Amino acid sequence: MSLIDNTPSGSGWINAFYSPTDRWMVGYVDAGAPLSLTWHVTSANGQPLSGKTVTLGSNLNYSNAHGTTWSAASLNTNPNGGLTQTTDANGNVTFSFSNTNTGVTGRPASLTSATAAEQQEASSLWTRLYLTVGSDIITANPNATVNQATDLIDLIVVAPTPASGTATAKTTVSMKSFTYGGAPVTATATVKGAASGTVSFSASGISLGTRPVVNGVATCSITPTSLDAGSYSLSASFSGNTVYAATTAMTAFTVAPAKTTLSMALPVTSVSLSALSTFSDVLSLSSAVGLTPPGTISLSLDGQVLTSNALSYQFSSLDPSVISVGKHVLLATYPGSVNFKASSVSRTFSVTAATTPVSTGPTNYDVSHGTLLWSETFNGASGTGLDPTIWTPEVGQYTGVAPGLANWNYGTGEIQTNTAAPANVSYDGLGNLAITAICTASNQYCGTWTSARISTAGKVNFLYGQIEARIKLPSGSYNWPAFWMLGKNFFPNGNWPNSGEIDIMEGLNHNSVDQSTLHGNYPNGGDWNGGGGVTIVAPLKSQGNGTWDNAYHNFGVLWTPTSLAFMLDGLVYGTDTYNAATDTITQTVGTQTSTFSIGGPVWPFTQPFFLILQDAIPAGTTAPGGSKGLMSVNWIHYYSYNGYGQIS
Fold first, then answer.
1. Above 70 in pLDDT, residue 8?
2. Fewer CB within 10 Å, N side or C side of the chain?
3. Are residues 459 and 601 both part of a single domain?
4. Euclidean distance between CA atoms 250 and 491, whole angstroms
5. Regarding beta strands 425-427 and 433-439, do their DSSP bridges make them parallel or antiparallel, or are they unpaired?
């Protein structure tokens, strides 16, 4: 590499901001070539500076340098990347590195013209190098009061010198058309007879990389998302070698947009005008290549657009006056994008006349329930295990560990070690599931326990409907029984409270109360009410003695897209209703109502949930050694409710 002295052209700004003895040099470097720069460093009186720390800097941000890459990574920072070394005894220091740019085309006819070189910077990759000595600095805005004594060198990256061969090499190139985001494809260039050289691949001017010729063939693997869908001209340019001259081959290919699938599920297919606000749809957009298509989905009702963003649409905002009794068609449309095809899906549903409820006293939902959609009974020999197609036991203390599920920290303070042992969880031979908490210490202040926690996570999920379990609660103040649910999206990352939590039953205070709670997240994070959730408490008292009788009772919930009503023995004792317009929850217990603000549209109870059964032991528990608590579950029933109910 030879340097061109361009100092006269820059003498004005050099004299103003640098030392009058400084020079402005311009040089060309072949793409991919190594280079070595030696600087001679002297003091102001011309004496060589030995053992002096100096830094080679690059890419001053006011020089408009751009695009170059170097083997020394620190030179690739803009502004002011650098390499640091120490001068030798003669004041000399040498910096060696290589250019790493590929696919560079174009080489000036003249490599000695200063004017041409200065003009070349406008259209080429280039960088500016300079040297700082000791504590000298180079400022982004040159200042005459700052020591900036240094030669400046502009390096312009150009295509390597063409090979000198003259024989004609026959070059062919091939590549199949492919689908955006699909399987990787390979472009292949065949250079007949060539044993060396490189081939630069590009698609309609977009560089795909330069590859070596091996046994007459160069291949270039193309990532299926590196090119947008469209038609392209594939170019393969052989560099030439000492025998063959450079040559180029071209072929056409296309990148097809990926196919998309838009699905729509309606939890109910018939709804009355009076319940239209509870109607909902579940939309899902996917692609054949596994990538999530960008953009939004529009939703139309009988040809009239309801929204351009269907995923956030609430039917509670639909004016009932614009819809009549009869059949209607919902159409969801994804318009597609550059790389994804359009798709649509429609579903038909019926609207019936508004109904006026007739008050006949409290409804007992153990008697007046919908269609049985799913049930679990625990009929098996005593000591035998659970149905593995439905239940997964968690094992461990403080952290749940279960096959096929991510580990998750409980964070509740419970102290028992959960096991899958028959002594802790098994059929009792009488048609019940027995979950038994056992104190395994012999002293009178037992703090060592085993018990069980089981769930349907990853196996059975429920969306809306009536869910109910017949349970006999354990006796003993040390028990903390629960029948509850978590959102399916809790796994794999422990996404709580965003996943939502439905506590259908928690026995608290010596099982004197049944606590039912909803947990969800505020828009900025954190559980509702500072971790307390939204809670309803039902007394569990009988026979006037303030304690719960030792019998089976039914604990359940009635679940719709906008409400959850909690039941004891078939009767509703409290309801939480979501108000989308105000981002609040209205809680009704008897004739009393309360309102809770959740701060935004963060109602997580419109997705599938899985079931959990457990008898935990709270921290601080004391009990005689060998104490036991038996939670007995007779059955679990899942019914439709007001047309809602879906198993997955």
1. yes
2. C
3. yes
4. 50
5. antiparallel
Question: Domain total for the chain?
Answer: 4
Q: Is 321 exposed, middle or buried (0-12, 13-18, 19+ CB in 10 A)?
A: exposed
Last residue of a domain, one of 352, 384, 409: 352
Cross-strand pairs, 76: none
Give residues with Cβ within 8 angstroms of 288, minimum separation 6: 179, 182, 258, 259, 260, 261
- Same structural domain, 525 and 601: yes
In sequence order, the β-bridge partners of residue 536 are: 516
Structural tokens at position 616: 């935990």
Query: What pLDDT score does 229 carry?
Result: 93
Q: How far apart are CA 235 and CA 201, in angstroms?
A: 6
pLDDT at residue 545, rounded to an integer: 46
- What is the side-by-side strand order in the sheet with 206-212? 178-179, 247-256, 230-238, 198-203, 206-212
Residue 14, C-beta contacts closer than 8 angstroms, at least 6 positions apart: 7, 20, 22, 23, 24
We report the CATH number of the domain holding residue 244 as 2.60.40.10
Mention every residue, 6+ apart, whose C-beta is less than 8 A from residue 174.
Answer: 187, 188, 251
Q: What is the 3-state secondary structure (H, E, C) of 391-409?
A: CEEEEEECEEECCCCCCEE
Average pLDDT, the chain: 84
Identify any residues that bridge with 647 across adjacent strands, giving them in sequence order: 462
- 360 lies in some domain: no
Q: Is 276 exposed, middle or buried (0-12, 13-18, 19+ CB in 10 A)?
A: middle
Q: Are residues 593 and 502 in the same domain?
A: yes
Residue 639: inside a domain: yes
**For residue 260, pLDDT beyond 70:** yes
Is 426 found in the same domain as 497?
yes
Q: Contact at 8 Å (CB) between 452 and 422?
A: no
* pTM exceeds 0.70: no
pLDDT digits (tens, 9 = 90+) for 331-387: 999 999 999 999 999 999 888 876 654 445 688 998 889 999 999 999 889 998 899
What is d(CA 545, CA 539) in angstroms, rounded to the nearest whole number? 12
579: number of Cβ within 10 Å: 15
Using alpha carbons, select from 491, 489, 417, 483 the residue that is nearest to residue 449. Answer: 417
Quote the CA–CA distance of 101 and 59 in Å, as a whole number. Answer: 15
Q: Are residues 345 and 399 located together in one domain of the fold?
A: no
Q: Find out whether 58 and 82 touch, Cβ atoms under 8 Å.
A: yes
> Does 387 share its domain with 275?
no
Q: What is the DSSP letter of 286?
A: E
Helices marked H in 6-137: 7-17, 114-120
419 domain-assigned: yes
Residue 392: left (phi > 0), alpha (psi -120 to 50), or beta?
Answer: beta
Do residue 85 and residue 181 come from a single domain? no
Q: Are residue 89 and residue 127 in the same domain, yes or no?
A: yes
Segment 116-150, tens digit of pLDDT:
888 888 888 888 888 888 777 666 556 555 556 67
Domain of 184, in residue numbers: 171-256
Compute the radius of gyration of the chain from its Cα atoms.
38
